[in-house]
Amino acid sequence: SAVISQKPSRDICQRGTSLTIQCQVDSQVTMMFWYRQQPGQSLTLIATANQGSEATYESGFVIDKFPISRPNLTFSTLTVSNMSPEDSSIYLCSVELGFEQYFGPGTRLTVT
Amino acid sequence: KNEVEQSPQNLTAQEGEFITINCSYSVGISALHWLQQHPGGGIVSLFMLSSGKKKHGRLIATINIQEKHSSLHITASHPRDSAVYICAVAHQTSGSRLTFGEGTQLTVNP
């Protein structure tokens, strides 16, 4: 199994600022996934982060807005840049280990 | 049309009732996941299915690959089962990336 922690658990940020979310896994994993869940919506994949390579972004998400780092096999960060109220969401990281999916507890972001 | 559709969107039950949540999908998949999300936002994986049926405690999940349909059943429901239940599929061609249904909000009243 895998245990995932995220920091911060929640934050309230001002428009125009940036927030970096950290995701730590207690096992080494090849791929980590970052998801966004807007209020009342289901999860949408932002990007897939492989260690040692550039993240792969889904349609509608760009690196300038959501830069991702993946410095090793247990850690990743997602930055939400130049935030607007539309970025208010829960951000979750996820990993696949074996054939199971594990999710972090989420970061609840409110942009004012 | 969404690739993954769940029904119902909202479900209210009395404690002890048998509950069924349905998930239909329109793409070829390598696996289907049932997830549980509590109000705080954290998500727990309940089942991963590629065929047949799985059971864990009071939870049962089934999948029919030919009909592209899965069901999640909760027996003897309890107020602590109140949560959003999400169906997600892994496409055959996209490995571990998941596509999610919109979720079913379950409320179990005492």
Care to give the gist of this entry?
The complex is a heterodimer of chains A (112) and B (110). Chain A is mainly β and 112 residues long. Helix content of chain A is 0%, strand content 54%.
Describe the structure in your own words:
The complex is a heterodimer of chains A (112) and B (110). With 112 residues, chain A is mainly β. Chain A has strands spanning 4-7, 10-13, 19-25, 31-37, 43-50, 56-57, 68-72, 75-80, 89-97, 100-103, 107-111. In chain A, the strands form two sheets. In chain A, strands 2, 4, 5, 6, 9, 10 and 11 form a seven-stranded mixed sheet that branches. A four-stranded antiparallel sheet of chain A has the order 1-3-8-7, with no helix packed on it. In chain A, a hairpin with a 5-residue loop joins strand 4 and strand 5 (43-50). Chain A is globular, with a radius of gyration of 13 Å. The termini of chain A are far apart. With 110 residues, chain B is an all-beta fold. In chain B, strands 2, 4, 5, 9, 10 and 11 form a six-stranded mixed sheet that branches. In chain B, strands 1-3-8-7-6 form a five-stranded antiparallel sheet, with no helix packed on it. In chain B, strand 4 and strand 5 (43-49) form a beta hairpin. Chain B is globular and about 45 Å long. The termini of chain B are far apart. Chain A binds chain B through residues 31, 33, 37, 41-45, 48, 90, 92, 94, 96, 99-106, 108, and chain B through 31, 33, 35, 40-45, 48, 86, 88, 96-98, 100-103.
Write the layout of secondary structure elements.
The complex is a heterodimer of chains A (112) and B (110).
Chain A: E1 4-7, E2 10-13, E3 19-25, E4 31-37, E5 43-50, E6 56-57, E7 68-72, E8 75-80, E9 89-97, E10 100-103, E11 107-111
Parallel strand pairs in A: 2-11
Antiparallel strand pairs in A: 1-3, 3-8, 4-5, 4-9, 5-6, 7-8, 9-10, 9-11
Chain B: E1 4-7, E2 10-14, E3 19-25, E4 29-37, E5 43-49, E6 52-56, E7 59-64, E8 69-74, E9 83-91, E10 98-100, E11 104-109
Parallel strand pairs in B: 2-11
Antiparallel strand pairs in B: 1-3, 3-8, 4-5, 4-9, 6-7, 7-8, 9-10, 9-11
